[in-house]
Amino acid sequence: MPARGQETVTPVDSVIVPLKIRAALEISGPVLYFTDKNILNLEAYVTADLDEKKSLYLGAGYSDYSYSQYNYSFLAKGSFLKAGIDFNLLRPEIAEGKYWAGAGIHYGLSRFTSETPVLNHDNYWGSVSSSLPQEKNWAHFLEVAGGFKAEVFTNFSIGWLISIRKLIYTGASKGLRPIYYPGYGEGGNTLTYGLSYYISYNIPFRKIKVAIKPEPVEEDVSDEDGENQETPGRQIGRQGIGN
Q: Which of 24, 128, 195, 236 is the most buried (most CB within 10 A)?
């Protein structure tokens, strides 16, 4: 038996967790395109569980962006790739292979073309009209994304992610930086933010047994202490009998 006042540790238990491959499609981009024809974002990703906590991430997408105001217009379109690792912060007995609440870190690569077909400039001598021809650019960025996903039907999940992105290579000097980078966002910002909604199809490929160690339970020793402790009156009585 454990010593008095020590904690009793419940024997280690285990749970079976299914590892899955998930193929997901971002759904807000096509929906927003119907309200704003200036930007189209299409994105999908695949994750593969390494264990009950970690999964590999690979994402890809396409963007078509246009912007215009009174003196210029800008066009950009291209594709992007993202790769990294995701972490599930839920305990295995809560996640059960169906729920994910955590964060991931991804490295992004954007490959696109951009051009400025209309560029007007007014000065003292009059108006000057010009344009910048189409050119190809690369950009690199880091992304940290956190959110929640839940399996609502057998092998079908929905979820959302909040993303923070940091531009680490622009592909151009600061004065000639493109207005928009596919996969990243506005080029004038060194940090961009995004909210995405996903639906995914999940393919279980293996099951693993994960050990679960419950929280230590402190033994209740109040009754035992009460039995061994004597009241002052009882102790005095015993001393009187002895004398």
A: 24
DSSP assignment, residue 9? P
Number of H helices, E strands in the chain: 4, 12
* Number of CB atoms found within 10 A of residue 181's CB: 29
User: Which residues have a Cβ under 8 Å from the Cβ of 143 and sit 6 or more positions away?
Assistant: 82, 84, 105, 106, 107, 108, 163, 164, 165, 166
C-alpha 119: how far from its chain's center?
A: 39
130: Cα within 13 Å, side-chain hemisphere:
6
Residues 6+ apart with CB under 8 A from 154: none
- Least Cα distance to 139 among 112, 105, 106, 173 occurs for 112
Say what the pTM is.
Answer: 0.79
H/E run at residue 183: none
Compute the distance between CA of residue 64 and CA of residue 77 in angstroms, rounded to an integer.
4
Alpha carbons 164 and 41: distance in angstroms, whole number: 17
For 199-232, write each residue's pLDDT tens digit: 999 999 999 988 887 666 666 555 555 555 555 5
Distance from C-alpha of 145 to C-alpha of 193, rounded to nearest angstrom: 10
Q: Which CATH number fits domain 13-217: 1.10.3470, 2.40.160, 1.20.1740, 2.60.40?
A: 2.40.160
